[in-house]
Design brief:
The two termini are 20 Å apart. By secondary structure, the chain is an alpha+beta fold. β2 and β3 form a beta hairpin. The strands form two sheets. Strands 1-2-3 form a three-stranded mixed beta sheet. The chain has a two-stranded antiparallel ribbon with strand order 4-5. The protein is 47% helix and 19% strand.
Length: 144
């Protein structure tokens, strides 16, 4: 299974913000959209990623104000991306080794979506269920 297959099921709507808004305003967007991370896109260029983890570690634990701190002060500027053709094993390995939960999807220098660790795990479980079902049918001699 590929990233593109996840996006075709999940959808490829990209929620983005600019880096000059406050962290509080960014959190409001994330809450309204029920998302754990938001992309920072300016002039159609992906500049960074802001996640709930960034908020917890860089605002709450450092006793800063989310209403006074701007996104560009805490956003993750060094991030990893994937292509629609990348397979889920690669994504899982990247997320595990780099300890990240969200991967922007880039095609032709454009951000076309974002996948989360939950999306990847859900897709892998679905593939495994289908494999088990096929093997069970093969062993029992029935056809699917």
């Amino acid at each position: 299974m590929t990233v593109n297959q996840i996006l075709s099921t999940k959808g490829n709507e990209v929620y983005s913000i600019v880096s000059t808004i406050t962290v509080y305003e960014a959190l409001k967007v994330m809450g309204e959209r029920n998302i754990g991370a938001v992309l920072i896109i300016e002039d159609n260029v992906l500049k960074g990623v802001l996640s709930e983890r960034d908020y917890a570690r860089k605002i709450v634990l450092k006793d800063k104000s989310s209403k006074k701190t701007h996104v560009n002060e805490i956003m993750e500027k060094e991030f990893f991306t994937v292509k629609p053709s990348d397979n889920l094993d690669y994504c899982m390995e990247l997320m595990s080794t780099k300890r990240i939960r969200h991967l922007p999807v880039i095609e032709n220098d454009q951000t076309i979506g974002i996948i989360s660790m939950g999306d990847v795990v859900k897709a892998i479980i679905e593939v495994q269920k289908n494999t088990i079902q096929h093997l069970d049918s093969y062993i029992s001699g029935s056809k699917i």
